[in-house]
């Protein structure tokens, strides 16, 4: 990684307001970033990317210089067997004061190697998911980039909300380059220059149901509640952590104690025989539309 020496701001004064008469830190000279490689996504699929971003004005009607190509080869729907995101504009390039891009000033000390790039794109999905916004977070942590640098992308538009998760490169490199006189970083992202931000939901919050899958990678349980950004279950349902689902009228149970094969099971009371209770029957429902739930593919008695 090439060390980027910027003008150091005093983060504490920026974040707290500082004493009366305190001056805001000078803006950080803008660098630029390029990179490409592969990651393994949250869905355990292989994705390739090529990306670039800067503060330099773009040509041919583009807002800023940069580019993005992203292909998730394991993504599939009824109409496509991969996800292809091709940039149409670069709308923002931001200095991240922390690796999670939670602040956008240059704190005292060594500047981070993390940058946020935002833009618009077209995809290979049918309308209304063919025109989207995206945000990419990259970190240049070491040379070579494989096993050290990181990449993540969030794509949002139409009915599509997609994230790769934040992952170390399995191949390739992220390269930060020295400031080139293209101006200064423009501060924090806004709904105008980066509609897909934030790329990472705050702890305990969510942007999609995938953040709440309960299988060890999510921040909470159940589904992402619209409007609140909090993981929870629909009214009347209970979250079963071992099955990773919200459900109503079922239990999460092993086929045999100690087997470890937890599935959601529906308990059905058996009819009494001559007034004598016959107990309950435990069965697995049919195939679930939710891949995060471990439903069986067929009904079965246990």
Q: Secondary structure elements and their pairing?
A:
Blueprint: H1 11-16, E1 32-40, E2 46-57, E3 64-72, E4 83-95, E5 114-123, E6 131-139, E7 150-157, E8 160-163, E9 167-168, E10 171-177, E11 223-225, E12 230-232, E13 238-240, E14 245-247, E15 250-253, E16 263-269, E17 280-284, E18 300-301
Antiparallel strand pairs: 1-2, 1-10, 2-3, 3-4, 4-5, 5-6, 6-7, 7-8, 7-9, 11-12, 13-14, 15-16, 16-17, 17-18
Architecture overview:
- Helix content is 2%, strand content 37%.
- It has 3 domains: 11-198, no CATH class; 201-232, no CATH class; 243-301, no CATH class.
- A hairpin with a 5-residue loop joins β1 and β2 (46-57).
- Residues 1-24, 214-220 and 280-302 have low confidence and may be disordered.
- Strands 1, 2, 3, 4, 5, 6, 7, 8, 9 and 10 form a 10-stranded antiparallel beta sheet that branches.
- It is elongated, with a radius of gyration of 24 Å.
- The protein contains 1 helix and 18 strands.
- The protein is mainly beta.
Largest sheet: 10 strands, antiparallel
Number of domains: 3
The amount of beta strand, in percent, is: 35-45%
Number of helices: 1
Rg (C-alpha, Å): 24 Å
Label this structure with key terms.
single chain; 2% helix; 302 residues; disordered N terminus; 4-stranded antiparallel β-sheet
Question: In a few lines, what is going on in this structure?
Answer:
This protein is an all-beta fold. The protein folds into 3 domains: 11-198, no CATH class; 201-232, no CATH class; 243-301, no CATH class.
């Amino acid at each position: 990684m090439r060390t980027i020496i910027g003008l150091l701001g005093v983060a504490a004064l920026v974040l707290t307001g500082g004493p009366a008469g305190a001056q805001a830190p000078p803006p950080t000279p803008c660098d630029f970033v390029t990179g490409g490689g592969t990651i393994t996504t949250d869905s355990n699929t292989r994705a390739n990317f090529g990306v670039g971003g800067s503060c330099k004005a773009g040509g041919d009607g583009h807002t800023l210089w940069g580019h993005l190509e992203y292909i998730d080869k394991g993504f599939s729907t009824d109409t496509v067997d991969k996800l292809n995101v091709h940039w149409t504009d670069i709308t923002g390039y931001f200095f991240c004061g922390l690796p999670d891009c939670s602040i956008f000033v240059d704190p005292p000390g060594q500047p981070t190697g993390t940058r946020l790039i935002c833009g618009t794109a077209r995809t290979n999905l049918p309308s209304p998911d063919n025109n989207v916004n995206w945000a990419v977070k990259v970190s240049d942590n070491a040379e070579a980039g494989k096993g050290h640098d990181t990449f993540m992308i969030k794509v949002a538009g139409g009915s599509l909300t997609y994230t790769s998760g934040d992952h170390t490169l399995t191949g390739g490199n992220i390269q930060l380059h020295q400031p080139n006189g293209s101006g200064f970083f423009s501060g924090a992202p806004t709904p105008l220059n980066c509609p897909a931000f934030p790329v990472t939901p705050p702890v305990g919050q969510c942007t999609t149901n995938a953040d709440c899958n309960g299988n060890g990678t999510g921040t909470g349980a159940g589904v992402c509640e619209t409007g609140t950004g909090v993981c929870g279950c629909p009214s009347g349902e209970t979250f079963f952590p071992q099955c990773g689902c919200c459900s109503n009228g079922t239990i999460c149970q092993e086929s045999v104690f100690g087997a470890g094969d937890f599935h959601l099971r529906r308990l059905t009371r058996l009819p009494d025989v001559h007034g004598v209770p016959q107990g309950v029957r435990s069965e697995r429902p049919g195939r679930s539309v939710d891949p995060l739930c471990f439903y069986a593919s067929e009904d079965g008695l246990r």
